[in-house]
Amino acid sequence: MSRTAQLKSTAAVLEPRTLNEALEMRARAPDAMPLAGGTDVMVSLEAGVIDPPRFLNLWRLDALRKIEDTPAGGVRIGALCTYTSLGRSDLVLRHASVLIEAARTVGATQIQNRGTLGGNIVNASPAGDTLPVLLALDAVFELSSAERGARLVAAADFFLGYRQTALLPDELLIAIHLPARNADDHTHYRKVGTRLAQAISKVVLGARLRVVDGQVVEARIAWGSVGPVPMRSPSVEAALLGVPIDVDAEAKVAQDIRPIDDIRSTADYRQRVAENVLRSFLRSVVQTRS
Amino acid sequence: MIGEGLVRADGQAKVTGRAVYVDDVRPEGCLYAATVRSPFAHARITGIRLDPDFDFSDVTVVTAADIPGENVVALMTDDQPALADKVVRHVMEPVALVAAPTREKALAAVSHILVDYEPLPALFDPERSRGHEPSLFGSDNVYSHITLVHGDPDGAFASAEGNADVRIIEGTYRVGLQEQLYIEPQGMIATHRVDAEGAPGLTLFGSMQCPFYVVKALSRVLGHKRFNVVQAVTGGGFGGKEEYPSLVAIHAALLALKSGKSVKLIYRRDEDLRATTKRHPCRLRYRTVVEVRTGRLLAFDGHMLFDGGAYNTLSPVVNSRGVIHAVGPYRCENVRSEALMVATNTPPNGAFRGFGAPQVQFAAERHLDRIARELGLDPLDVRRVNLYRDGDLTPTGQTLKDIGAKIVLEAALERAQRPLPPGNGSGRPGGGGQAARLAAGRGLALAWHGCGFTGNGEANLQGKADLALEGRDLRVYTSSTDIGQGTETIFPQIVAAALGIGVGRVSVAPPDTDLVPDSGPTVASRTAMVVGGVVLKAAQALRAALASEVGFDGDFDAMLDARTSDAVLRVREQYADDGTLVWDPKTYRGDAYPTFGWSCVIVDLEVDLDTGEVLYRRLVQATDVGRALNPVLASGQLEGGALQALGYATSEEVVLDERGCMRNDRLTNYIIPTALDAPEMETVLIEIPFAGGPFGAKGIGEIPHDVPHAAVAQAIERATGAVLDRLPMMPERVMAALERRR
Amino acid sequence: MILRFQVNATDVELDVLPMARLLDVLREDLRLTGSKEGCGEGECGACTVLIDGRAVNSCLVPVFQVAGAKVETVEGLASGLHGHERLHPVQAAFLEHGAAQCGICTPGFLVAAAELLAHTPHPTRLEVREALAGNLCRCTGYQKIVDAVANALGRQGS
């Protein structure tokens, strides 16, 4: 009837000192669960949801904490950057202030000090607060393995199913690449979660509209908590593209999302709220431009 | 001294981390306990076996068969067993206990106690409880049924027919369960001791409000009183640690007796949420006759149906307070107030700050708003025309004097007119920024709250307090516990003021039932007003005793200087009313309470029209406290109570599964407000002294939780036109109400 | 495993299970019981400690990850000895403003506030509320806690 009573974990820990060591251990010990800040893993462990025989500690890999310019003019964020460190980065502020806004809504201070952007991505919860923003920003994830080296996977191709991702068993997420901010972009983040901190979202909207001469030339509308995965909203994006901003595009939301009734909310509420927050965003873009 | 915001006596220990809560103690060689609980709402137990494949060699197992005395949790009635024997009546009911050298082993052992159940039909709908099957309590499943009649309600309703000057207005209101959510879960430690006479016994040390409740309950289970009960520093109670710790103590004691070792029993958070008592849900139907021109109440007919859950606990007291407070702080000459408290197969509901008053006064305030809406009147005007005035009679026929209703109303309105204090802007992360569509509104509600026990409660209880002169210092001995509200600080303030000495010379003995007399429980807004009054009497008696010893009555230190003995001088006083209170518990006529507190709450909020979320900006409350013995502690109580009520209003929903078990049994999904959710609060202390309280003090512990949720409902209505008559007003319900409005 | 780290400016060396929760090691092995457990899942903040100056929930930190780190708990906020201790300004402010009631959440709030004040000595009230939103209190309504932290270092926040 109840979740499994927690027994003290006797799991062992693998302690790589370098990224290369970590990738080799990852290949050799696929049963070792990667562990970064622990803010998701420790909750699952305490609740008895997971019980891996060993962990692969990534926390010491300072190489994964860098935030740097990319040759393409964007920014590369190391996977171990905490939500707090994102908020302190001028580079992230310049290219993706909307990501900082999202990071400020994850849990609260203590979680933001420990939880990592990479952890949020590989945990792949449909309610992951930063994920719709990464989708909206066309983020690209840098995955690496000892055998094949690095490869790039677009955020839109990464989330495959409920808590399933494109990450292969011998791979680690190394970094997140964000393209340069375009002056014509309007970005938006909205989290709906009953209380203002320590909330698990009921609906998350991450959005980016590129508007040139009154026409939408690029539209990214992405959702969290309204389906099994964080997802783009193709029907809404298509409806917005190539026309002046259509504030009634929210009517298309229902075609794209698959909300459910669960302990936190109802499918009906989620759909209505998704439509409403999208409409308000679109209106605010129209108002900003007029 | 009195009226000074002295730093709390236990403050230094609490800010340095040295205060000792139950889980901070680890007796040598102690065992860790866990509880085997029912997975069924209603079932017959046909067998309890130990899994032969599990190593029980270092595990102590206790079942009902191990109970040396009676298998009851003695409280108002003896219906609740300490451990379910033949039948379980709610999910999570304790069936067996285990103790082992580690918590991990104990938790593992729980799942290897094999209990055979034969499920029985279960009852979840309180509307279908009274007189229905299955039979859970007494002959008809009714814990309490009280009807109070004042004036001639039938006549008033009959004469309303066809009278164009009056109208009959009806409404139905609903409130859900609420969890106390003390941040420290329930916990108790049982250790073995040898008492002063050399007899073996036990010490129960734990988180609790009422040590003598534990004494009463445990002595029935053990069949003797060879034990003492000591309160640990307690991490919040709010009623949730009034009666429930008796059960925890019984369990720890049974395991300690059988194992011969110390036993520590600490609930996990999810277990605490699923197993322990909640605030009673209630459905309320109100019918009133009102004057069309003014909204004046001419007659009131209210029917309340409370769900008591599977055992009686203190439910009749909740029912009683509900009946008496049902109309709110408003005059009405013709009243019928009827409350029914019934049994269901959900975990028992129990004590929670307010004790029925927050439920019924939500309905009373919403009903006045309905009257205003239907008659096209201003809700504030409807309140003004109905507020109690000096000399009015309450529904029990009690004559009210020194009424604070109008004073608190005007004080709150005056404060709320001032500009919003700085620092609470709406720049919240993730809130949508400029895109958000917000509608602002203000709501107001008024409350009254009877202080202390109902009717003859205090006279029957005769709460006691001792005061001892030990050297040149004084020590207060009571069973009143400090659960955060400041007992350990205000009792010394009272004694020091009465004797004209420095407060630093007065200490409070730890609530240990070996050392202290029974002052009554720490409940019902009674500690400062009632027990504080007995402490004041004790100070006066001690002064008199000292005066007679030294032959003169003067400066306290001068009298001490004149003493020739250094013997401890100890006096005991007990509560006695002045004989002017008259109460008939059979008819519910007479003086229901020694006095009432009065409060007005004004809430400023914004409704997010896209999401139905409610954002709190400001909460002003003006409350008659009689006399603020310590204004810092008093306003702290009022602010905390108000925020608990805002949680009740818009975020705290207990979701039950098909077995009546709480599904949202984690702090991630039972949602109490954070510092970001809380409004800036301003608290105006109004002092209308009560002659029966120490220095004029009244009880204040519960009144702040009585109506902020009603003010929220009014504010939402004023902001958006959406009408909500059901708690909690979760965003989903606000959204639905916004859509109904269109 | 043998683990070395610093707690409240004292070096410690312990034999621990690597995945044990830092909270349990502090409370059970080191008998530092000021950090409290209210939920075990990083929601209530009662177990907040500083690791290298950053406030974290010690119930969510596997202890092996603090190897070589500086951990500070509520017991380390004041300086000096018991009875003659000099309180941290935020501890003194909690006493003055009546910000502690039942006290079970108090250690976590104090530690979280200490981090805030270390880099923002004169926070606005909204900054205080955001910084402390990971700590749940059921007694105070937060009003006196915000008062205490906003004023701890002497100037009214705005």
Protein model, in words:
The complex is a heterotrimer of chains A (290), B (742) and C (158). With 290 residues, chain A is α+β, with helices and mostly antiparallel strands. Chain A has three domains: 12-55; 64-178, Uridine Diphospho-n-acetylenolpyruvylglucosamine Reductase, domain 3; 186-289, CO dehydrogenase flavoprotein, C-terminal domain (Enolase-like, domain 1), CATH 3.30.390.50. Chain A has helices at 19-28, 41-46, 83-87, 90-103, 109-112, 117-123, 131-136, 234-240, 253-256, 267-289, and strands at residues 12-14, 32-35, 54-57, 67-69, 75-78, 140-145, 149-154, 159-161, 164-165, 171-178, 185-192, 203-212, 215-224, 231-232. Chain A is globular. In chain A, 52% of the residues are buried. Chain B is built from 17 helices and 25 strands. Chain B has four domains: 22-120 and 186-266, Aldehyde oxidase/xanthine dehydrogenase, a/b hammerhead (Aldehyde Oxidoreductase, domain 3, Alpha-Beta Complex), CATH 3.90.1170; 135-168 and 286-361, Aldehyde Oxidoreductase, domain 4; 379-418 and 438-453 and 598-741, Aldehyde Oxidoreductase, domain 4 (2-Layer Sandwich); 456-582, Aldehyde oxidase/xanthine dehydrogenase, molybdopterin binding domain (Aldehyde Oxidoreductase, domain 4, 2-Layer Sandwich). The termini of chain B are far apart. By secondary structure, chain B is an alpha+beta fold. In chain B, the strands form six sheets. A seven-stranded mixed beta sheet of chain B has the order 3-5-1-12-9-10-11. Chain C has 158 residues and is an alpha+beta fold. Chain C folds into two domains: 2-73, Beta-grasp domain (Ubiquitin-like (UB roll)), CATH 3.10.20.30; 89-151, DNA polymerase, domain 1 (Orthogonal Bundle), CATH 1.10.150. Helix content of chain C is 30%, strand content 15%. Chain C has helices at 22-29, 89-97, 106-119, 125-131, 143-151, and strands spanning 2-7, 10-15, 48-51, 54-57, 70-72. Chain C has a five-stranded mixed beta sheet with strand order 2-1-5-3-4, with helices on one face. In chain C, helix 2 packs across helix 5. Chain C is globular, with a radius of gyration of 15 Å. The interface between A and C is medium-sized, with 30 and 32 residues.
